[in-house]
Structure formats: C-alpha cells, structure tokens
Model the fold of this input.
Amino acid sequence: MRTNEYGQYQLGSNAVRLSATAWSRHDMVAYAEPLLRQFASENEVSVNLATEVEGEMRYHACCRSPARLSVNLQVGSAVPVARTAIGRAFYAASSRARQAVIISNLKESLSNEAFTHAKSALTCAAEHYEQYGYTVSDGEFSTDILAVAVGVYDVATGQYAYSLNASVPSANWAVDDYTAMIVPKLQALAERIGGGDA
Done:
C-alpha cells in the first residue's frame, strides 16, 4: 500500500500483479471444471487439477470416473508431490526456481531418507517429462491406481500454474496402452485450460 498525491491509499504495482495472478487462477479453475466433467465422462477416467502448496499437491478441481477408485479425492485434498503423477508433472513443468522451492518444502517436511527418495523420484520424473511430455504413477501412491499427468501452462501469467492428471484402476489397463490412449487427449485438455477461451 502507498499513498497518492491526494493522501489516499492505493495498491502498489506488486499487489496489483499478485491480485491479477490470483484472479487468473480462480478463473482458470472455473473455466476448467465443465471441461474436466466432460473429459471424465467421455474417457471414463478420474481427472483432477492441482497445484503445489508447501510440499504437497492441493486439488482445486476434481471429476470422478464412473469406475470406482480406492482413493476418493475432493477439492482441498492434498497428495504427495513425489509419489503422484500430478505432483511429478507439476515439478517437471515448473521453472528451476520453482523446483528449488518445491525441493526446499520437501526437505522441511520429510525425513532424510524420505527426502532422498523423493528428490530421486522427481529427478527421474523430470527427465521422463522432458522426453515424453507426461509423468506416470503406477501403484506408487495407491497400489491399484494408474495415473498420468501433464503441466498446465497459464498464458495469462506466463508460467505453469497447475498440473492435470487422469487416473484409472490399474487392473483395467496396461501402462503403455493407457498412456498411448490418454496422454494426447490430456495434453490437448491442458492446452485448452491454460489458454482460457483461446
């Protein structure tokens, strides 16, 4: 806050930028929700939109598959960054500065052994993402769930704001068949969400 020439308080430029970013993200979630519902229904998957908060992935939008999954996540749920496809994709798509923040958050919240394992998993996931454009978790978060995820680039803010996953019961799919079927569709959905009305 600062005062103008008339002695009135007004927001500084940093506060205005922060506000614009917050509204952009709010608008993106609202825009994404009907697209996620349609995607979940058409592809018989559960699909979720999340972002990293203090070393966990926090869910902002969730649409469940008709197939019953053992983990029932809702808006506000949090899952581990390193053991989930959605967390790995967010890390892999993030800038190096944001990756450093995520690693720092994990170091503060995990034991030394768990941190070492998480850091290794994220490094491998980032390499896979760079080569293939998605991450995968096959039974690592929940033994019977197969999930793939991609980053969501927000054209309004010029950064990766979220990641998006699609999950199914692992008994129903082989990993290669599932990724071949769902990844191109998930990438197209991420582009549509990140571009807003574009």
About this structure: Residues 13-43 form the longest helix (31 residues). Residues 15-25 have pLDDT under 50 and may be disordered. Residues 95 and 159 are 8 Å apart (CA to CA). Residues 9-194 form a domain with the Beta-Lactamase fold (CATH 3.30.450.40).
